[in-house]
Amino acid sequence: MLLLMVVEFLVFYFTSNISAERHSTSSSPVSQVLASAYKPWLFAATLAVLSAVFDLYGWAWTTGLRSLFLRVAGCFAVSGLLLYLASLALPNLFASGGELASAIAISGLSIILIRLLFIEWDKVDLFKKRVLVLGTGSRAAKIEELVSQGEAQGINIIGYLPMGSIHSYVPRERVLTDTDNIRDLVEQFGVNEIVVAIRERRGGGLPIAELLKCKLRGVSILDLPTFFERQTGILPLEAINASWMIFSDGFSQGITRDLVKRLFDILVSSAFLLITLPLMVLTGLLIRLESRGPIFYTQERVGQYGTPFTIYKFRSMYTDAEKDGRPVWAAHNDDRTTRVGRLIRRLRIDELPQTINVFLGQMSFVGPRPERPYFVNELAAQIPYFHARHSVKPGITGWAQVRFSYGASVEDAMSKLQYDLYYVKNHSLFLDLMILLQTVQVVVTGKGVR
Fold first, then answer.
1. Number of other residues whose CB lies within 10 A of the CB of residue 45
2. One domain, residues 8 and 41
3. Which residues form the domain of 140?
């Protein structure tokens, strides 16, 4: 996907250049310099960002041509409108008229052609990693389930080696029974990677000597959590343990990372507060007009290292939503929600006051969602490693929010924790920026609203 992003950015850039040369009518040297220096970059950057917003750099568009065409059409319709409005305000920096129309049209056709080729390329096994899985039990079945759901992009599972296991949970035709010699299988099938999906590795259950020889011959050896981390963006709770978390890469904190994240949060929250101030004032008036009660809803949440803090949100429910004082999970089409509340929840406007929490340093823009102490105690008692999500600051949006629907049960919380653990292990400024872009898509589509 990163390769696809780079290729398309270059296509957008050169398409804008060509359109500028064919339609340029300016005789001013200053205007020509500005156009050649900034127009192609601004055009390409706008299309690339909006492509990310419409999830064209995820895998959802590969499910069918209809999904591809709808996303491309939406992306280029919005891009064309935004670039046209920008050209009216800054004609020297943005393409307009025939130049803009031809650049949009050529880019749109190019992106469809590139992605059709990408889909065909993804089907060719020649470009995929050839993976051998050790084990045929329940852990190996998780990998086969991943393949059947179409989430095993970039890999080709050549088969499953029983390793003396009595039970088999994978299709019989996928089990390799001709030999138990891993080196022979590696040479026979051209294996690039071996995934260890064996639960019991002690007492001779794992052929260490053979795996070491394969490793020294350039074959990658992965355990199940690392494989799922790479393929799905989660850390499966049933496959990880405390020792794996201690010795694996990641889960690291540092002064430099904290400083960069804090500066980013201060700059973005300050700009965000200024930009959204008129919208927040209007929202406050609508809330006050519809129902009695405060405009803001305050609630105690658990922050970094378990420190409690008060979170700010626009009130979206009636004031007696929890009459008995007992916290309740939000339900789909919750009848406790006001009409204005349903609207601001769908557009995520109710979350805007949390920008104040970000500015005060209690939260970050990106991180695991902060939970109430009642739910934290309840979930921590039932879900292992739940408190690990509190090693970073909670966020307004996060990896779990853009990849998983709204959590309203212990089972949902367990699924979301797998995404939160992935973020805690791999958080970086680049990942934060990607999550922010995907958050825009979530707001536009209304995904996970309750």
1. 13
2. yes
3. 125-232
**Same domain flag for 395 and 407:** yes
Residue 284 in domain: yes
Residue the block writes with tokens 């008036």: 285
Kindly state whether residues 222 and 329 are assigned to the same domain: no
For range 189-203, the mean pLDDT: 84
Encode pLDDT of 122-155 as tens digits.
666 667 889 999 989 888 999 998 888 777 777 8
Mean pLDDT, to the nearest integer, of 337-348? 86
Q: Are residues 137 and 196 in the same domain?
A: yes
Q: In this predicted model, what pLDDT tens digit does every residue of 248-287 receive, in sequence order?
A: 888 877 888 889 899 999 998 898 889 899 999 999 999 9
Question: Residue 346 is encoded by which pair of tokens?
Answer: 């769908």
Residue 72 and residue 137 in one domain? no
CA separation for the pair 134, 235 (Å, rounded): 19
Question: What's the number of domains the chain is made of?
Answer: 3
**Is 72 part of any domain?**
yes
Residues 157 and 212 in one domain: yes
Q: Is residue 410 part of a domain?
A: yes
Domain membership of residue 246 (yes or no) is no
Pair (313, 388) in one structural domain = yes
**Domain end among 123, 138, 155:** 123
For residues 282 and 175, membership in a common domain is answered with no
